[in-house]
């Protein structure tokens, strides 16, 4: 496989997102012979999409939601015939359909693809593929903890549903939280006082102990990195082992977690 050259001229690409989680790419250059839009994950895996002629002398590639794109960050290139890959740079992006996106209730899985501009100014796509999926909604903070509400996709909420707050570095440390459920909507409260210093990840058990453990995340919008955007204040709490400062936050994968640090 030919590696991309640093001298290959960049190509501009427009991008349109649809409500199902698919993307369409338009580039304003047409070369003779077969052409592909190449998505290359940081571990070297590739997904090649045919570029076909479109109106205005442009080339178009489609990434429908039905095509699996494993989770990760995918750099975008154009490849013409046997030529080297040309890095794509963002043109006009229409992501309006991603804002407050609500997938169908019968969706077995959730495919999320958000195009974004890298630090180098090139085009990339952040992908998530979750089945089932627990989408976090609003967080309501109190001095002693917070309440999270959300919606589950790809499975139902049974009478034994509950949530888990799990310490990331120690599988034995688990706080169980009761869940209120109404059809696919859920809610529960996370108190800070029982949590030791560390990172605690939030999971939903929609069918109780016998069912899947589903990571709670916020994916269904157009914000590719939630961590610097959704910032929550720290709360000082007298915990079971001393005074701590705690707050919820979104990880680099947009999963919901809690950070707890001891006050020295």
Please outline the major beta sheet.
11 strands, mixed
**SSE ordering:** EEEEEEEEEEEEEEEEEEEEE
Tell me the β content: over 45%
Number of helical regions:
0
CATH class of the largest domain: Mainly Beta
| Subunit organisation of the chains | single chain
Q: Name the shape in a single word.
A: elongated
CATH architecture type of the largest domain: Sandwich
- SS content category: mainly beta
- Mean pLDDT, as a whole number? 91
The count of DSSP E runs of length 2 or more, i.e. the number of strands, is: 21
User: Uncertain spans, ≥5 residues at pLDDT below 50?
Assistant: 1-6
Organism: Streptomyces cynarae
Protein name: Transferase
Question: Which key terms come to mind for this protein?
Answer:
Immunoglobulin-like, 11-stranded mixed β-sheet, elongated, 264 residues, mainly beta, single chain, 2 domains, disordered N terminus, 10-stranded mixed β-sheet
Could you give the topology of this structure?
Layout: E1 11-17, E2 23-27, E3 35-41, E4 46-50, E5 52-53, E6 59-63, E7 72-80, E8 85-94, E9 110-117, E10 123-130, E11 133-142, E12 145-153, E13 162-167, E14 174-178, E15 180-182, E16 185-191, E17 198-205, E18 214-217, E19 235-239, E20 242-250, E21 256-262
Parallel strand pairs: 1-8, 11-18
Antiparallel strand pairs: 1-2, 2-6, 3-4, 3-7, 5-6, 7-8, 7-10, 9-10, 11-12, 12-16, 13-14, 13-17, 15-16, 17-18, 17-21, 19-20, 20-21
């Amino acid at each position: 496989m030919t590696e991309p050259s640093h001298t290959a001229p960049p190509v501009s690409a427009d991008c349109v997102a649809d409500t199902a989680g698919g993307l369409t790419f338009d580039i304003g250059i047409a070369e003779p012979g077969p052409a592909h839009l190449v998505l290359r994950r940081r571990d070297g895996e590739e997904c090649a999409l045919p570029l076909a002629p479109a109106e205005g002398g442009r080339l178009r590639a489609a990434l429908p939601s039905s095509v699996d794109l494993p989770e990760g960050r995918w750099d975008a290139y154009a490849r013409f015939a046997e030529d080297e890959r040309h890095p794509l740079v963002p043109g006009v992006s229409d992501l309006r359909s991603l804002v407050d996106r609500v997938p169908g209730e019968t969706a077995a899985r959730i495919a999320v693809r958000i195009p974004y501009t890298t630090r180098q100014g090139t085009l990339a796509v952040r992908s998530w593929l979750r089945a089932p999926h627990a989408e976090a909604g609003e967080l309501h903070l109190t001095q002693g903890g917070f309440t999270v509400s959300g919606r589950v996709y790809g499975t139902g909420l049974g009478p034994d549903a509950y949530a888990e707050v799990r310490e990331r570095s120690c599988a034995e440390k688990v706080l169980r939280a009761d869940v209120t459920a109404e059809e696919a909507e859920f809610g529960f409260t996370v108190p800070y006082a029982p949590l030791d210093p560390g990172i605690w990840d939030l999971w939903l058990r929609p069918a109780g102990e016998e069912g899947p453990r589903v990571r709670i995340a916020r994916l269904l919008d157009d914000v590719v990195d939630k961590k610097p955007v959704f910032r929550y204040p720290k709360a000082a709490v007298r915990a079971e082992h001393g005074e701590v400062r705690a707050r919820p936050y979104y990880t680099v994968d947009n999963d919901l977690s809690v950070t707890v640090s001891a006050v020295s």
